[in-house]
Design a protein that fits this description.
This protein has about 160 residues and is mainly β. About 15% of the residues lie in helices and about 40% in strands.
């Protein structure tokens, strides 16, 4: 199971990893095993917990990502397969968060303003560059937002233009 939280917080499991094959390196002296996972699919268990984790990754500068559960290992040996069932595993790693994506500041490279259909909206389209300092990536696609320009609204109200 995979969970995550901000530093000191408690995470809720949001996904399970379904690994069919993984590279495992054993250290016979210490008894530790290093399991390398790359591009493994996640089965989402709790969309709300995943959403909260993504929010923490977006807001915070550091996030703890935890994995815990049981694995069954099948090793190909010269004399046949060796099966070791239900080995408990747990691991956690600190990853960089996105820190609100506000450092360095967002750069707007293109903006288009379209005809308004009412006095209370101004349709715009923007192209922006956002630096992601995190170890994690998210794909946002099209993003809708509301922009409130209080100084403009105050000026319109003082001028009698409403708001």
């Amino acid at each position: 199971y995979i969970s995550g939280s901000s530093v000191g917080g408690v995470g809720v499991a949001f996904a399970i990893v379904d690994v069919k094959r993984a590279a495992i390196e054993l250290d016979c002296n210490s008894g530790w095993a290093n399991i390398s996972l790359s591009d493994v699919p996640l089965e989402i268990l709790d969309e709300m917990a995943l959403g909260e984790f993504v929010g923490v990754v977006f807001r915070e500068h550091a996030v703890e990502l935890k994995m815990a559960g049981n694995v069954s290992v099948t090793a190909d040996m010269l004399f046949g397969d060796l099966v070791v069932p239900q080995i408990p595993v747990s691991s956690s790693v600190m990853v960089k968060g996105m820190g609100g994506l506000n450092s360095p500041p967002i750069k707007v490279s293109e903006i288009q303003v379209f005809d308004a259909t009412s006095a209370h909206e101004l349709p715009v389209s923007m192209s922006v560059a956002i630096y992601n300092p995190s170890d994690l990536e998210i794909t946002l696609g099209d993003v809708s937002f509301s922009l409130l320009l209080s100084q403009c609204l105050d000026a319109l109200q003082r001028a009698g233009g409403g708001g």
